[in-house]
């Protein structure tokens, strides 16, 4: 495959994945303020608390398939027989892990769950969705079109359902059912047309269990990541109030939304970089890492400094006065987008394709320890603000270790710091936008002016530099090779 063709395929897949991620940003921007006002902080806190617990069982169901399955399919996709055998064995193992997770959650609900039981039972739909989740197959085949179309349709249906069925504070169960049911529907829908890509075949039991080691090894970092990302909410729920959980969760959701667009590139690049490694194309691999880091930091710096600049105006306008404290939390958490962007490039384009799973796991363990320490110290003093600081510290240490781990193999430090222009452009954009928000009322018109002002300043300052540095790559993407 020619380099131009590779560039074109990556660009098209990135656009498909980005289109879905943009929808994930746009729809919640409409539903979150509505739900926040209808359900209120306490009810949202209950939803986020029960979701955080269900998340652990969902991870047990899906194990490490997001990365392991993606990589497995990418390694076997050129041979039909190998592909069928690899997929069948892996999914049979996923069925076992999914059944165990569902059983374990039922036991938890029967013996240990004493409060908010109805909402917790509805969260079982979320765990069940992972039993059917074969998105890793399509990612490994680089078939992003189907997953995008399915997810877009389901997202639009759930978007409409929220406004139809969630109308007062007694509709928390309906809201939970819509959120979790849409996840189940999107995973089941991927099974239609499966036979066009793979076929189930009989495989020996030993081949099924052969996938256990790879899945469990990559499940550990997924587990640890989600421990320290849900740890904040669980510790807030136990050390503070459900209102603080809701305030923190809303701020965290806003910061997570733009990161979804950045993460889209990592999902697309993992199977591509795995193929490069298998063919020994080291120089092409390094070139893609360099370019990816530049595009990542261009997007991340603009999003992070933009959110920091408008945070205090955005929170009361968007969530309502009950969530005004979200503004400060957004400013604290927003730099995490930059940190995670760097880590995403290193993880999905070097560590995982090269099977450097050990370094990946060590970095995540460091993140958990840091998050636990800072949560324990800061939540009793500063509640949700303390949790936000702890999250930022944990993410920073994860990124620093991953960059440190591969410094001798690829010049990732140089790739990162050579893009300091985007950091400077973000600061240049932040100052006037933040000052404007402080001097004017917290209104929708102020927010809109801030957004337009920030985009104009950043695109002029950073966009011009990007065009100059990556003119040829941009031309290939626009012309599709």
UniProtKB/TrEMBL annotation:
TM stretches of this protein: 21-40, 46-65, 86-108, 120-141, 148-166, 172-194, 214-231, 257-274, 295-315, 321-339, 360-379, 385-405, 417-435, 447-468
Keyword Transmembrane helix: yes
Pfam families: Polysacc_synt (PF01943)
Membrane topology according to the record: Multi-pass membrane protein
Top-rank taxon, per record: Bacteria
Signal sequence annotation: none
A GO CC annotation given for this chain: plasma membrane
Protein location: Cell membrane
Keywords (A to Z) from UniProt: Cell membrane, Membrane, Transmembrane, Transmembrane helix
Chief place of localization: membrane
Identification of the protein by name: Putative O-antigen transporter
InterPro entries hit by this protein: Poly_Biosynth_Transport, Polysacc_synth
